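Q: Got a minute? One more chain.
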Amino acid sequence: MFNNFSPNMLKTYKSCPRKYFYQYVENIQVPKSSIPFEKGKKIHALANYFLQGVNISRIETALTESERQAWELLLNNPYFRKDCLHSEYTLTCKLGEYRVGGRLDAVVCDGENYYILDYKTGSIPKNPEYDFQTMVYLLCLDRVLASYESLSFVYINLKDRKDYVIEFDPKLKSKYEELVEEACQKISSDTLYNPSETACQRCEYSKICSAI
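A: Always. Here it is, folded:
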């Protein structure tokens, strides 16, 4: 059984244990259209190149109008223009007997104020303060930083043109650790993976799922 968990693994299990079983235990990969994700992939790649100091002028000419608008929004975002420490940064930390982590779009700073950036060309999560991505990434970076004045997670929503900033309150640290570790424990002890009926309609595993 897994002892290493990403936010996507935790969110998949929460949405439907059976889907988690197919995707992460059985490693069944169902082909699906990549078209809805193309804009996001391009924006993330451009952002990574830009933050690494790569000349992207030729790549920019290949963008569609929609992609160009999203890129310009990100390029002019005040958080994106802060000093970059890391781009496409893989980070993990230990919580009890489990290890959690993932790849952060970017970590930037303004003096002793640090920000985890997440670029969204779609929607941000519901209740983002308690989304597994928010909690896991904040916990991981908190472990890495020796000291800081403030630490925040910033969802840069390029669709709605809004920034959603979640400041890491030290008082919430134990709550985040409890919620994430509890989720890891629940997955690790599960042997039945009972399905969640509410998640069946749009699930890519619906044609092979024994629960339907």
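A: The beta strands are 4-5, 83-95, 98-110, 113-120, 150-157, 162-167.
Q: Perfect, thanks.
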